[in-house]
Amino acid sequence: METRELKYFVAVAEELHFGRAAERLGMAQPPLSRAVQQLERRLGVRLLERNRRGVALTDAGEVLLREGRATLDAATAAARRTRRAGGADNLSGERTRLVLAVKTAAAHELLQELLDAYAAEPDAAEVEVLQCGMCDQEARLRDGSADVALMHVPFNSLAGFDSEEIMTENQFAILPAGHPLAARENLSLADISDVPGLPPARWPRHGIYPPGPGPEIRDQTQLAQLVALGRTVAAVPDSARAWLWPEHAAVPLADAPPVVTHIAWPAHSRSTALACLVRTAVRLASSR
Amino acid sequence: METRELKYFVAVAEELHFGRAAERLGMAQPPLSRAVQQLERRLGVRLLERNRRGVALTDAGEVLLREGRATLDAATAAARRTRRAGGADNLSGERTRLVLAVKTAAAHELLQELLDAYAAEPDAAEVEVLQCGMCDQEARLRDGSADVALMHVPFNSLAGFDSEEIMTENQFAILPAGHPLAARENLSLADISDVPGLPPARWPRHGIYPPGPGPEIRDQTQLAQLVALGRTVAAVPDSARAWLWPEHAAVPLADAPPVVTHIAWPAHSRSTALACLVRTAVRLASSR
DNA sequence: CCCTGTGATACCTACCGGGTATCACAGCGA
DNA sequence: TCGCTGTGATACCCGGTAGGTATCACAGGG
Description:
five-stranded mixed sheet, homodimer, D-Maltodextrin-Binding Protein, domain 2, DNA-binding, 9 helices, alpha+beta, three-stranded antiparallel sheet, Arc Repressor Mutant, subunit A
């Protein structure tokens, strides 16, 4: 099975429309139809149900969409990492460079400490910090844009990665300063899940937003502004206190699950620079 | 990057010889040379060092070998799982079939209980048990031959999989019955690591055998026989008591790390049958 | 000094991936 | 009822390229 065919199938499966998929791929529709048919023939499996008005995925198609995306990610990651290994690093003794994906503005302090501690290591590599939106450190790690990431369980999923736990925090509720609930000593998740006129913010889980009335959040600035405007409420980890606005109020959440920050990297990574960074992070965690 | 090119490169990187690699791939040597050159050109990176007598991997080549294997595994897994999803399952209401990879003869009892408990579930699928050698449940899971596996940390690595812990056991030393050490009440790892005439057995870690004087073990029968013959000694988990021979002696190991059995599956798997099996396993674990 | 074994090059062919033009068909509105 | 529209499939052509064979260039070793 060639990655070309896989790319084509994934495009069609995502668009559920040959014409649009072909356009997205920068090609004409007929060869795309043919390529997908050929893939079906090769696998001996019907992937798409063509009902005269559009296209639907079969069960097998669902499977291939999921597994195919993973395969394509693996391929682009392989290419990217190989290029990086051969490009800067090999020539003229330039040092290995590590790309660390972080959720923008999450856990500043920890990040700062980690970078400082790592820089002090004798064989430290240069670390480039790649800032991500609410949840796409996972994707960056999977497609090879990053070598290592700081992830926050349960917001991120560690599935498919190696990881070490480095910090646990409680959560608090972030509310508009003037709101009645802001005066409370304590809140529970139930208290903030159904406040009239203050729908809880939603962020993507595995790339899609859960249903609900609240606004869809892509980054923390957006969240900060919406809370300040009195449009939403959210649960955030302690380290978020660093970026609170005067218009915000913070109230401890008694029953929210703790947020556990992990340092995560692609399974089977074997770079010594990475191993050193992880070691530093673990040491830091145990000394806090 | 096409899987074809990747397959070619991996073959060459493994053989370190274009001729043999070409033979293994069932093609002539010149087009293989050309394909690898083209891959190097496309990536803009030198992958192989051709010194007139054979071939060596560059650093970038090492990276691509590792990542490329992962990509190829993902691709074959995608094809296999898609075929399975479309083949038996979709037609005529036949039930989903789960393939469970286990280390042959490891943790019988647990396996038996798990299969029984799962079969009693209302929406249980048929479970096929795939018996593996010492350590290749990981490979089976990665290449799509299996959907789920019982793995034994620290013998197996869970890197890249989702998993749940279901059993913890201590280890004991398994020795020839007549051996002086067999009379001891307790042993330590140090005691059995350097016994004259009784080199400790070795099994593969990530596909390769660690160096040492002891015999290379592929399955438990082999180990059993070698111990009975007075050729080797090994540390094995408690559940292995089930298959001890009269010629064997078992002595508790005070300082060996516990063996933790996990149920593991490919990250992001979403089959309901699998979820049910995992739930059953976890329930079983907590009730033991 | 030639023979052997290595990977690279030259050149040809056949296949196939991609394009354009067109078809077959379902739904829909006049 | 008859086009009209939008869908994916088919027919056919062309060029690039994957693969083959023959050969080269070169390092080591007898």
